[in-house]
Amino acid sequence: MPTPHAPTLRPYQRDAIAAVIAARKSGTRRMVVCLPTGAGKTVVFAELARLAKRQVLVLAHREELLQQARDKLQAAIGPDRVVAIEQAGQRAPDTAQIIVCSIRSLHESRLARVVRGRDIGLVLYDECHHAVAEDNQRVLKQLGCFGKEWTGTLLGFTATTQRGDGLPLHDVFERIVYHRSLLEMITEGWLVPLRGFRVATAADLTQLSGGGMDFRDDELAEAVDIEERNALVARSIQELARDRRTVAFCVTVNHARNLSHALNRLGVPAGIVHGEMASDVRAQALADFRAGRTRVLTNVGVLTEGFDDPGVSCIAMARPTRSEGLYAQCVGRGTRLFEGKKDCLILDFVDLSSLSLVTLPTLFGLPRDFDMQGQDAADAARVWQRIQLDVPGFDLEAGAITLAEIQDRAAHFDPLTLHVDPEVRAISGLAWKSLGRKGLALHYEIKAGQLREVLVLDQGGRGKRWAVTIDGHEKARFSLVEEAVQAVDWEVEQQGPRALQSALPQASWRRRPAGHGRNKGEQLQLDAFAAQYPRR
Q1: Confidence at residue 401, expressed as pLDDT on a 0 to 100 scale
Q2: What is the 3-state secondary structure (H, E, C) of 246-296?
Q3: pLDDT value at position 517?
């Protein structure tokens, strides 16, 4: 029976718990639950800890997470079981059935003392995308999580399975047993809608190192921590965020300090937190922000994980990033529901870059240069998905573009205007037509008035991904589109001069009228396109 103080579980939280139990019964010992920030991961693992028959060890990385986890666990299981913290000078008593640990405090001898005499059957790892780091794996190995004889369960929770260094989570975990996307959670009303503004800056990132999964902090700070850009970011926060409580993510301590100064000069009360601050000073800065004494909090890394303040309704990404995982963590600080909070505003400061930067549009699968102009990201994503379904082959060139402009271009889109890749033109003189990203089409006469249709279609995946179909029947597959085109050209040539001539762009049959102002060949091309990719 749930305790009187335990929070009521949401439907997806119950589903996550059921998925964990089912996976363990099927033999999975090391698993991951992936839920967006604000979805209540702590509530889920608190309920699992309540259900556990053996003792529970909770691993966390940040000091702020320990007390938060301990409080929620105690509320979930009630006062009859002891929940204790093991960190720095705090020692968990022998009577503790659930121990919340700072993983950084667990050097070998301390961990040995913690587990001595205890029957730990469940290890809960919060923000488990950190688990693959060498020292964190050392803790898990000492707990026996990788041993064949281990009878316990290692359960990781994270909002993102992506790491900035690209190391794979499957080095530690066997599989993801439950996952919900940010778009799903917003659509179902469990997280607030996100609205975005794109603010272009003159900062130049084109000379920054392109290796790795993200920029180097020292190079990035030199490019973006400049007075003009900080002033632009500060003015944008002042004008767009207005009275919203705002968290701004910066690159370095100096960058955070300089942006805070720029905000204060405009009369916007701003504070700062970073990892080098003393604990009491940082706690006071957070308290001032929660109490409204400061309206903007600039930070470096500290608020990326574990910061739980549902009243935040604006995120300012003063730190450009190429990491989707990092970006999602930052944005997640503003997604929680809160009384009177209708949405969260995301301010993307877009610098000059030859590399792909993650912004709110890209997080929702929208074009990288999409200019949201304060619109709802989920609504825009649904419109874009519908356009891609209804207008196959439609794509955008680089450059900032609004949703209204996309809809207008899609409405006037004609697949016959698509260009065949120069690589195909270089090897074939036949009248190939582009189907956009889907592939190519060719029509030619096999006898008077009878046309043949050949499609080269991208089936996705690896290996032989390009399928050649003739009059709707698949005949062969090739690894490269050029190989498929060469094979079709050869096949047409083998059918004789008449077929070859009719496959050329200047073939006379292509100039015959075929209704609606199109010649017969073009009309057949459109009919084939519609049949292969019907509107939904």
Answers
A1: 72
A2: EEEECCCHHHHHHHHHHHHHCCCCEEEEECCCCHHHHHHHHHHHHHCCCCE
A3: 38
Whole-angstrom Cα distance, residue 54 to residue 119? 6
DSSP code of 358?
Answer: P
Q: Is 447 within 8 Å of 467 (Cβ atoms)?
A: no
Residues shown for the chain: 536
CATH number for the domain formed by residue range(s) 11-180: 3.40.50.300
pLDDT digits (tens, 9 = 90+) for 97-132: 899 998 888 889 999 988 888 889 999 998 888 888
Instruction: Measure the CA–CA gap between 326 and 30, rounded to whole angstroms.
Output: 24
User: DSSP states of 189-248 as a string?
Assistant: TSS--EEEEEEEEEEE-TTS---SSS--HHHHHHHH--HHHHHHHHHHIIIIITTS-EEE
Whole-prediction pTM: 0.72
Domain with CATH 3.40.50.300 in the chain: 11-180, 187-409
CATH architecture of 187-409: 3-Layer(aba) Sandwich (3.40)
User: Amino acid identity of 362?
Assistant: T
461: left (phi over 0), alpha (psi -120 to 50) or beta: left
Closest CA to 438 of 525, 334, 347, 338: 525
What is d(CA 217, CA 113) in angstroms, rounded to the nearest whole number? 38
Q: Is 313 helix (H, G, I), strand (E, B) or coil?
A: coil
- Distance, CA of 83 to CA of 69 (rounded, Å): 10
Q: Which residue ranges of the chain lie beneath pLDDT 70?
A: 1-7, 63-64, 162-168, 210-212, 305-306, 354, 390-400, 409-419, 512-536
